[in-house]
Design a protein that fits this description.
The chain is of the alpha/beta class. The strands form four sheets. The chain has an eight-stranded parallel barrel with strand order 1-2-3-4-5-6-7-8, surrounded by nine helices. The chain is elongated, with a radius of gyration of 29 Å. α6 packs across α7 and α12 crosses α13. It folds into three domains: 259 residues, Aldolase class I (TIM Barrel); 93 residues, Recoverin, domain 1 (Orthogonal Bundle), CATH 1.10.238; 135 residues, Alpha-isopropylmalate synthase LeuA, regulatory domain (Double Stranded RNA Binding Domain). α1 links the parallel β1 and β2. The chain is built from 18 helices and 16 strands. The termini are far apart.
Length: 536
């Protein structure tokens, strides 16, 4: 059944870089190509060598890379002039890459050939046929992207057929039907793809854009109609609203439609691959992305969590581990006892009187969330509360007093100083520090106060700082919520503080961050009741 297996074609390095805000260096592309190869992608489209020096450099460097199974593909257009096929700089640039797989696109919408190129239908067909033939005769596999095919089919079926016929006559290996504007509907995609599968003996492919939010559905419908070649970007990035996300399509193909792919996939590495791609693009991941998003298997409502604890199938359509994701239970004012119990079990926290403690925790969490806390975004602060009630944690220090002074010199340059009085055991440490703004000064002063007692905090760094006004109608007296993300090496954690004073809210979040790191290092040692009272 080799002929019925799906071929996966990733264009993140080419079409993906056309997305707004996406910019990849040559080294970035090479690193991503390695990861796509290891995952099991069959064809990796590296770029358009005829359009820019960076893509030319990529193809030079990728030659020395020994990939496991993936083929590197170069992308370009048909020749510009009929009289100059064999000297066309775009086609020659494709051959100079020395890859054995090339994709070229041609106009299959009459509107484009007449108004865009300004040529006759016959000349457009000749451009396609002769361009494909020139590349094919040079011993490469030619994948023909039928640009705007579905729009072209709606305007003139005969024209679109003629253009595909021209590609076939030129020696194309695969015909890819492109929904370039992303405006087609799934049933139309299915019907047209089915006709093309019956009409041609060559493999039919699908290339969908997401302008109507239907790229995933359109791709799956094309496969249902017989398409065996699927193009997309691994995280759905691309021009305008993006390309189809292979991270959505692949699990549906494999887990839901039971389709076989040409190579065995490292499906459990999918989430890691997508996160790596976002990191290398310096973009924030889509937390609600199907299958691989952080929230894809997150449960918040108490009734849902209670059901999931009995049988995860009740609210999860697959096991998250299949795609490298994990089940998460969020604790908030919507939580019930099940949420708290799940979280405690997840952290391996044992309570002497679990029912009484759980009820107390639910009440405390709901009270705090009413005051403005949000523990679903601050797991570390929540864990400190849980472990304090279990007797596994007490604060390592307490800030007794804090002052921040801001002044401006005659040139309106800001000077900020923070002074702190910190209790550590029986010692009181007084310290002061300047900084770039009040929060930075506070952070430096607190680190300075703790450095003598806890040198292990030196490597902790702040990676994110967010402030949100909770009740804007109260104006300058409104409460603020501060969320801080901290990291040490590859570990990261989030803490929270809430107050009408942004400095106090920041101090709370900073204190929790440092306490969490120290408690983690001590393996959440058991403490007695006397110790627990020390900093109350």
């Amino acid at each position: 059944m080799e002929n019925s297996k799906i071929e996966l074609f990733d264009t993140t390095l080419r079409d993906g870089t056309q997305g707004e805000g996406v910019n990849l260096s040559v080294e970035d592309k090479i690193r991503l190509a390695k990861r796509l190869d290891n995952f099991g992608i069959n064809i990796i489209e590296g770029g358009w060598p005829g359009s820019n020096p960076r893509d030319k450099e990529f193809f030079k460097k990728i030659r020395s890379l020994n990939l496991n199974q993936a083929k590197i593909c170069a992308f370009g257009s048909t020749a510009r002039k009929l009289a100059n096929i064999e000297k066309d700089p775009n086609l020659l640039a494709l051959l100079e890459t020395e890859v054995d797989t090339i994709t070229i696109f041609g106009k299959t919408w009459q509107l484009h050939s007449k108004q865009g190129l300004g040529i006759s239908d016959l000349d457009n067909a000749k451009l396609i046929e002769k361009s494909v033939a020139f590349l094919s005769k040079n011993g490469v596999r030619v994948i023909f992207d039928a640009e705007h095919f579905f729009d072209g089919y709606e305007q003139s079926q005969s024209f679109s057929f003629d253009m595909l016929d021209a590609a076939v006559n030129g020696g194309a290996d695969t015909l890819v039907l492109c929904d370039t504007n992303g405006g087609s509907l799934p049933n139309f995609i299915y019907d047209v793809t089915r006709k093309m599968v019956k009409r041609y003996s060559l493999p039919i492919g699908i290339h969908s854009h997401n302008d109507s939010g239907l790229a995933g559905a359109n791709t799956l419908m094309a496969v249902s109609a017989g398409a065996l070649h699927v193009q997309g970007t691994i995280n759905g990035v691309g021009e305008r609203c993006g390309n189809v996300s292979l991270a959505t399509v692949i699990p549906n193909l494999v887990l839901k439609m039971n389709k076989q792919t040409k190579t065995d996939l490292n499906l459990s590495g999918l989430s890691s691959l997508v996160n790596f791609t976002y990191d290398i693009m310096n973009m924030h991941p889509d937390t609600q992305a199907p299958f691989i998003g952080q929230s894809a298997f997150a449960h918040k409502g108490g009734i849902h969590v209670s059901a999931v604890m009995k049988n995860s199938n009740m609210y999860e359509h697959i096991k998250p581990e299949l795609v490298g994701n994990k089940q998460r239970v969020l604790v908030s004012d919507l939580s019930g006892k099940s949420n708290i119990s799940f979280k405690a079990n997840e952290l391996n926290i044992k309570f002497k009187n679990s029912k009484e403690i759980t009820s107390k925790l639910v009440s405390e969490v709901k009270k705090l969330e009413f005051e403005g806390y949000q523990f679903e975004a601050a797991d570390a602060s929540l864990e400190l509360i849980l472990r304090r009630l279990s007797g596994e944690y007490r604060p390592f220090f307490k800030v007794l007093d804090s002052k921040v002074h801001i002044s401006y010199d005659e040139n309106e340059n800001e000077n900020t100083d923070a002074t702190l009085k910190v209790l550590v055991g029986e010692d009181i440490e007084h310290t002061a520090s300047g900084g770039d703004g009040p929060v930075d000064a506070l952070n430096k002063a607190l680190r300075k106060a703790l450095s003598r007692f806890f040198p292990e905090l030196k490597g902790v760094r702040l990676t994110d700082y967010k402030v949100r006004v909770l009740n804007e109608q109260e104006g300058t007296s409104a409460k603020v919520r501060v969320l801080i993300e901290s990291a040490y090496g590859n570990e990261s954690w989030s803490t929270i503080g809430v107050s009408k004073n942004i400095i106090e809210a920041s101090r709370q979040a900073l204190s929790d961050s440092f306490n969490f790191r120290l408690a983690s290092l001590s393996n959440w040692r058991k403490v007695d009741n006397e110790e627990l009272q020390l900093y109350k």
